[in-house]
Write a structure and sequence with these properties.
Helix content: 55-70%
Radius of gyration: 47 Å
Mean pLDDT: 84
InterPro entries: DNA_recomb/repair_RecN, P-loop_NTPase, RecF/RecN/SMC_N
Organism: Kibdelosporangium persicum
Oligomer: single chain
Protein name: DNA repair protein RecN
Strand content: 15-25%
Function: May be involved in recombinational repair of damaged DNA.
Number of strands: 17
Keywords: ATP-binding, Coiled coil, DNA damage, DNA repair, Nucleotide-binding
């Protein structure tokens, strides 16, 4: 990992090899910036205050070794990240002095969330905040489920699958019960509308036809005068020949004169007059029929106006015209055929809901049994670890309790004789309790544990969970705070044991812990030109003795300090060899 412009670190490169790596340094040297860099590479929150004073940006770059066909490799493929020749992935995070952040993975610009997804599969950072998270019931349940492994995972998967179907049926039943009332109202409205339309019995285009008819009946005198005048103009007045001949007679006379001409050009015009005569004759006949049917009929006019009023009542309610009203009626009739408000459908859903509730209760009970079995094992194993961490008289109890449903709980489920809240993770509440000494009452760890004890409980749990944790890299940021003496040596011993199956990086101020590391990095602070900066270097064997002496009592330059540091290193190396040899002998026996 390479860090530039982050906090007091100007530029530093850290080689984080497999096994146990420890990071130390004086107070204020910038040890926590190493963890901050890992947080940034893990998609953590970027803060402008972390950028080194005078720098335009902070840069953190890390190389991740990603197992092929792993969940992390899938994240990289989906992000179109390009791996290096050795299959590793380079992640890059920059934070500007203005607070803006950018992320890159495998040479590709990616959202910060992609780095978070990748790191979730590869690295776990534990610090004081993580200890505080352990105080939450959900985190304690997650610890138990992780320890239980496949037994709880399978029971939980069965529970969640049935619960999802149960909730779907409950929602469908609720919607259909409410919708049944809505559909009944809708059906009544549709039936009422159809009855109104059926009573009026409108015909397609009837409203338009009635408008024309009403106009004719209301204006009969003016219409007769106009039609009669046009008729007389065409055929002439039969009662008064003095008025002259009509247009038809004039056309006939013109045809006669043209047809008798000896000039071919004039004779050629006659057929066109013949066509005009036919057209005029047709119009004349229609005018004659129109006049015969045009009579003043006050009674019919009254009927037409009454019928228009009936049709307007429909067009005000259902559509803008009668054709629209008829279309609404056809659609309403079709809707009525599809409205099902039968009790049979609701009863079938209610029966299925009850069947699924019984099945879900069985899965919930099975899940609880698996958790209770795992809780006993977890309690005994963590208690055994605490004995080695100078808490020999203390004990851990992992309690699995039913989560009772409240009166308004929408996920209430009867399991046996009790109504419980069926959440996404089951019906159980898990609480980790600490018994400070023999005979003491077991209390929730946030009430019973001091800061140092909480650190040791956290570490004991991590050691116990190591076999079940798929994350290959674990980072501990001063989880040994508040611890010293023999307990500190035991913490170092257990971190070394954890490093046999994981890559372990520890930021610590305790020489007893640092002595167990496979390699030792120190964050060194210097001041030049009024500006403080820090760097990171890997210590040689001799340099390591000096650093441990400083950590023990600030006596790096004295023979006594060096002797104490060398003695501590020898103790740690002996303990690690014994642990490895013990592991090998157990394998041979098995």
């Amino acid at each position: 990992m390479r860090i530039q412009g982050l906090g007091v670190i100007d530029e530093a490169t850290l080689q984080l090899d497999p096994g146990f790596t420890v990071v130390t340094g004086e107070t204020g040297a910038g040890k926590t910036m190493v963890v901050t860099g890992l947080h940034l590479l893990s998609g953590g929150r970027a803060e402008a205050s972390r950028v080194r004073s005078g720098a335009s940006r902070a840069v953190v770059e890390g190389r991740f070794h990603v197992p092929p066909d792993s969940a992390a490799a899938k994240v990289a493929v989906e992000a179109a990240a390009e791996p290096d020749e050795d299959g590793s992935l380079i992640a890059l995070r920059t934070v500007g002095s203005d607070g803006r952040s950018r992320a890159h993975l495998g040479g590709r610009s990616v959202p910060v969330g992609v780095l978070a997804e990748l790191a979730e599969q590869l690295i776990a950072v534990h610090g004081q905040n993580d200890q505080l998270r352990l105080l939450h019931p959900a985190e304690q349940r997650a610890v138990l489920d992780t320890f239980a492994g496949d037994a709880v995972a399978k029971a939980l998967a069965d529970y969640r699958s049935t619960r999802a179907e149960w909730l779907d049926v409950i929602e469908e039943l609720r919607e259909k019960t409410e919708r049944a009332r809505e559909l009944a109202k809708q059906a009544d409205m549709l039936q009422h509308g159809l009855k109104e339309i059926e009573a009026v019995d409108p015909k397609p285009g009837e409203d338009v036809a009635l408008v024309d008819e009403a106009r004719r009946l209301a204006d009969v005198d003016q219409l007769r005068e106009a039609a009669a005048g046009a008729h007389y103009s065409l055929s002439g007045s039969p009662d008064d020949p003095a008025d002259g001949a009509g247009a038809l007679s004039a056309v006939d006379e013109a045809r006669r004169r043209l047809s008798g001409s000896e000039d071919p050009k004039l004779r050629d015009l006659e057929p066109r007059l013949a066509e005009a005569a036919v057209l005029l004759s047709d119009v004349n006949n229609e005018l004659s029929g129109y006049l015969e049917g045009l009579e003043a009929d006050p009674a019919r006019l009254e009927q037409v106006l009454a019928r228009q009023a009936e049709l307007k009542m429909l067009t005000r309610k259902y559509a803008t015209d009668i054709d629209g009203v008829l279309a609404w009626a056809a659609d309403a009739a079709q809707q009525l055929t599809g409205l099902d408000t039968s009790e049979e459908a609701l009863n079938a859903l209610a029966h299925r809901r009850d069947e699924l509730a019984a099945e879900l209760a069985r899965h919930a009970s099975a899940l609880t049994e698996e958790r209770e079995r795992a809780a006993q094992e977890l309690s005994s194993e963590v208690t055994a670890e605490l004995a080695g961490l100078a808490m020999g008289s203390a004990g851990i109890e992992v309690a699995v309790r039913p989560r009772l449903a409240s009166a308004d709980d929408s996920n209430a489920l009867r399991v046996g004789d009790v109504v419980l809240s069926a959440g996404a993770d089951g019906v159980d509440e898990v609480e980790i309790r600490l018994r400070a000494h023999d005979g003491a009452q077991a209390l929730p760890i946030h009430k019973a544990a001091s800061g140092g004890e909480l650190s040791r409980v956290m570490l004991a749990i991590e050691v116990v969970l190591a076999h079940a944790d798929p994350v290959p890299t674990m980072v501990f940021d001063e989880v040994d705070a508040g611890v010293g003496g023999r307990a500190a040596i035991e913490i170092g011993r257990r971190l070394a044991r954890l490093a046999r199956s994981h890559q372990v990086v520890v930021v610590t101020h305790l020489a007893q812990v640092a002595a167990f590391a496979d390699r030792h990095l120190v964050v060194d602070k210097s001041a030049k030109g009024g500006l403080t900066k820090s760097g990171v270097k890997t210590l040689s064997a001799d340099e390591r003795v000096v650093e441990l002496a400083r950590m023990l009592a600030g006596m790096e330059s004295t023979e006594t300090g060096r002797a104490h540091a060398e003695e501590l290193l020898g103790l740690a190396e002996t303990a690690k060899r014994e642990a490895i040899n013990g592991k090998k002998s157990r394998r041979k026996k098995s």
